[in-house]
Write a structure and sequence with these properties.
Helix content: 40-55%
Structural class: alpha+beta
Strand order of the largest sheet: 9-10-4-19
Number of helices: 14
Strand content: 15-25%
Radius of gyration: 31 Å
Largest sheet: 4 strands, antiparallel
Shape: elongated
Distance between the termini: 8 Å
Length: 485
């Protein structure tokens, strides 16, 4: 191929688009040497390919069906008081009880409240499950450097019983500390002796500042703001229990997960102002030194995200060690190279022409590079199902390239330019129909609560789209130039 022919191929918009995307993908992947002298990239890896931990949380609540002759709101209020639990009305015949009770216990309570239990499912509604997922994602994202997946596991009845959290790059102890607790934040005020009374919960907190160090006391703290209702409740409690008149004997306690993170009397200025006005801005102090700084960071996470609406229990957990993750990573690379080599051998066996094998392999490899670049750009976590999707793209990709080549070489000879365009269009039509079938088959896997299969489905769909839109038209132009020789 002379320079003029090569220039004609490279300047063709289809080939030029492919080359530009490959270059941009390589930039997004960003191969470089890290501080340890190892080859590194911008790709994010899941638990299968690096050290990390996963936790499956059980939501300690129930979704139950019921019947009652009582007015609906009165019945729900009476039942909530009897159970000492928050109750959410899902519809006229179903409620969500945000506290764990057995079916036998609930049957008795329902009968006492004037109703009858008709169904019992452990878990929460789909809306509550999504809310819990959002809170956990907020907590994890507040850490900044953690790579995580949070997935709700719902049944056919739309009741969410479990939530699976995968945290790459952390050990099990840290993972349980981050997501294994309900995150209950409460403010209490001292009354008589060591007795305290509830003032407010963390759900009235509207904004939270970053942890700051008091230069006078060297104590770390987190400033946060209460809503109007919370500020009013705080003022009412301070006046009712005498904290405004005698602050030295009425300490303010801030409690996180039943552990006091702040305990001190109200300042004289605050006590005086509370007699006449509400105070919305508060500061929770967590102590000095590194321990105080770490606790302030943890407190900020809980305050920003709020407490989970239901209690949780760890139903299962597991972890991947760093050496095992590296081994899986190496095996995945070898599997990809072997798949690419096997594809090349199959193509060579079919056509017995090295000049046709190389373009096919390069086109196939370019698809993988573009997909890896997209994965790096959106910071999508790569795991074993994702790599299986990449290998599947190699297989489906070579099938479609064979369809194009066979269609163009129909009757064993190179067609005229006009006939070539007709055959290429017919081949692309077949490929588009096949691609649509694959996408339709993969969409349910991508949308359903099957966390381990989502990566496979998403990468397969993206690979098919990249092939149909970018690489197949470019290959059609390249193969015509080669066959015309």
């Amino acid at each position: 191929m002379n320079s003029a022919e090569l220039k004609a191929i490279l300047t063709d918009w289809r080939v030029a688009t492919l080359i530009i995307l490959v270059i941009l993908s390589l930039v997004a992947i960003g191969p470089h040497i890290d501080e340890n002298g190892h080859l590194a990239t911008n790709l994010q890896y899941g638990l299968d390919l690096q050290q990390g931990a996963w936790i499956q949380l059980e939501l300690r609540a129930e979704v139950v069906g019921f019947t009652t002759d009582e007015p609906l709101q009165e019945f729900v209020t009476k039942l909530s008081n009897s159970l000492d639990a928050d109750i959410e009305l899902i519809d006229e015949n179903h409620i969500e009880i945000r506290k764990y009770y057995t079916q036998a216990e609930l049957e008795q309570k329902f009968a006492e409240a004037g109703g009858k239990l008709t169904s019992y499912q452990q878990g929460v509604s789909k809306d509550t499950g999504s809310h819990v997922k959002t809170i956990l994602e907020t907590k994890i994202n507040s850490l900044g450097t953690k790579d995580a997946k949070v997935n709700t596991l719902a049944g056919m009845n739309n009741v969410v019983r479990y939530i699976r959290v995968e945290l790459a790059g952390v050990d099990m102890a840290e993972a349980q500390e981050i997501v294994g607790k309900q995150g209950k934040f409460e403010i209490r005020v001292q009354t008589v002796g060591n007795q305290t009374e509830h003032v407010l919960f963390g759900d009235v907190i509207t904004s939270v500042q970053r942890p700051q160090k008091d230069l006078q006391t060297n104590s770390w703290g987190v400033e946060f703001t209460l809503n109007e209702a919370g500020a009013q409740a705080f003022q009412d409690a301070a006046i009712r229990y005498g904290a405004t008149d005698d602050p030295e004997n009425h300490y303010l306690a801030m409690i996180l997960d039943n552990k006091t993170v702040y305990s001190a009397p109200l300042s004289s200025d605050l006590a005086s102002s509370l007699k006449t006005t509400t105070t919305r801005r508060m500061v929770a102090s967590t102590g000095t030194g590194n321990a105080g700084a770490d606790q302030a960071t943890s407190l900020e996470i809980h305050l920003r995200a709020g407490a989970l609406p239901v209690d949780v229990a760890v139903a299962g957990s597991g972890s991947t060690s760093a050496p095992l993750g590296e081994r899986y990573k190496m095996m995945s690379i070898l599997a990809g190279l072997c798949a690419l080599g096997a594809v090349g051998c199959a193509v060579y066996y079919r056509y017995r022409e090295p000049g046709m094998v190389l373009p096919m392999i390069l086109i196939n490899a370019s698809e993988v590079v573009i997909l890896l670049g997209f994965i790096a750009a959106i910071r999508f976590q790569m795991d074993l199902p994702t790599i299986a999707g990449l290998i599947a793209v190699l297989g489906t990709g070579i099938d479609q390239l064979v369809i194009i080549t066979d269609e163009i070489l129909h009757e064993g000879k190179v067609p005229s330019p006009n006939l070539y365009l007709k055959r290429l269009a017919r081949a692309l039509g077949i490929i588009v129909a096949a691609a649509a079938t694959i996408i339709i088959a993969m969409v349910p896997l991508a949308l359903m609560d099957l966390s381990t299969l989502k990566g496979f489905a998403i990468i397969t769909i993206l690979g098919v789209l990249v092939g149909v839109i970018i690489t197949r038209p470019a290959y059609g132009r390249i193969i015509m130039q080669i066959l015309s020789k």
